[in-house]
Each structure stands twice: as C-alpha cells, then as structure tokens.
C-alpha cells in the first residue's frame, strides 16, 4: 500500500492559525496574514521549557496547603492529598475521586506523555508513531478540563459558606497548581505533532 505524500513533496505547508494550505516558501498566510512555518519554531526546546517548569511548580502545589477550613471546633489547612483523604473519610467519595483524578492522575499522565513524545522525537524514533499521535490528541483534549480541580475547590467553598457550616479560604498551593495547569497547556500547544512523522523522512528542516 502506497503511503500518502508529504506536504514538502507537494511543495505546500499548513497555516497553524486558520489551516489554509499555503505554497512552500510562503512567509505569511494569504488568508489570515499569520506567519507560516513548515514546523513550529523551536518546538522541542519550548515544550521542554514549559514541561520542566510545570514539573517544578507541581512540587509546591502538592506540598503547600490549597485551602484553609475553619469549623466550630477549629481550623485546619489541607494539601491536595489530605483534602482528598478528608473528603473520602466524610463520605464525599465522589468529590474525592474527582479531585484526585484532576489534581494527581491527569497532571502526572500529561508529564509522562509529553516527556515520552519529546524524547522519542529527539531520538527520531519510529516506535508506535500512530499511537503517539493519538496520545498527543488525547493530551490536547483533556487540557480543556485541567482547571477542574480549582473549580471544585471554589464550588465546595461556596456551598459550605452558603450553608453557614464553616469557612473555606484558598491558600498558596492553589496558585502553584493553577500555574502547573497553564504551563502544561502551553507545553502541549508548543509541541508540533508533525515531528512524530519526521522520522520517516531524511531531509527534515
């Protein structure tokens, strides 16, 4: 079965902004006037920078408290994991699972997937290229739900204060977690998935 031709073989390139097919060598999209590149400039370096920064910020996001709870018997500060455990012990297992998935499982999975994509692209590996492309699309998809944990904390705080049972206030850890979310989204946006398929050709720009 013949492989479909590459864009460079057809002497065309794609606009990253509007998807218009531009002639090879064009510096500006004729439809939206955005800069045109055959590959995103410095894609791997920028993706590594955002990814490493997000991993660094993920440490204080888990170590520092994300919220302060003040009840009739006193107050306490909770990290992400201690908050998950507390919700679970009080019977709110659905909120505990939601926070665990959004705050622990999803970020760690994004770290692993993006790191794997970067290493394999740098090594020009032909290993599971189709599956790696699907992984990248999956990371892009879940990126839209990455702020779910922050929204859950805000929703719980609003509900608790509405019932006048206690007071919940955000703490510094939630700021670091928000930075992790933004940096991982920027990392995924900086990565050029076409680099996955460049291992099949020899003359890569």
From TrEMBL:
GO terms for cellular component: plasma membrane. It is found in: Cell inner membrane. InterPro entries: PqiA-like, PqiA-PqiB_transport. Its main location: membrane. The keyword DNA damage does not apply. Keywords: Cell inner membrane, Cell membrane, Membrane, Transmembrane, Transmembrane helix. The chain crosses the membrane at residues 48-68, 95-120, 141-160, 172-191. It comes from the Bacteria. This is Paraquat-inducible protein A. It comes from Pseudomonas lutea.
């Amino acid at each position: 079965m013949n492989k479909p031709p590459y864009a460079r073989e057809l002497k065309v390139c794609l606009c990253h902004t509007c998807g218009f097919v531009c002639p090879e060598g064009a510096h500006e999209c004729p439809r939206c006037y955005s800069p045109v590149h055959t590959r995103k400039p410095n894609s791997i370096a920028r993706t590594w920078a955002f990814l490493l920064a997000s991993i660094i910020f993920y440490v204080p996001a888990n170590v520092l408290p994300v919220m302060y709870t003040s009840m009739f018997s006193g107050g306490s500060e909770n990290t992400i994991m201690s908050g998950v455990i507390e919700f679970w012990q009080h019977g709110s297992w659905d909120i505990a699972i939601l926070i665990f998935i959004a705050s622990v499982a999803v970020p760690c999975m994004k770290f692993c997937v993006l790191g794997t994509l970067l290493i394999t692209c740098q090594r020009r590996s032909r290993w599971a290229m189709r599956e790696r492309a699907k992984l990248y699309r999956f990371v892009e998809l879940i990126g839209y739900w990455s702020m779910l944990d922050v929204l859950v904390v805000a929703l719980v705080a609003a509900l608790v204060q509405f019932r006048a049972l206690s007071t919940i206030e955000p703490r510094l850890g939630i700021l670091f977690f928000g930075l992790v979310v933004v940096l991982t989204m920027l990392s995924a946006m900086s990565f050029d998935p076409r680099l996955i398929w460049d291992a099949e050709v020899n003359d890569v720009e």
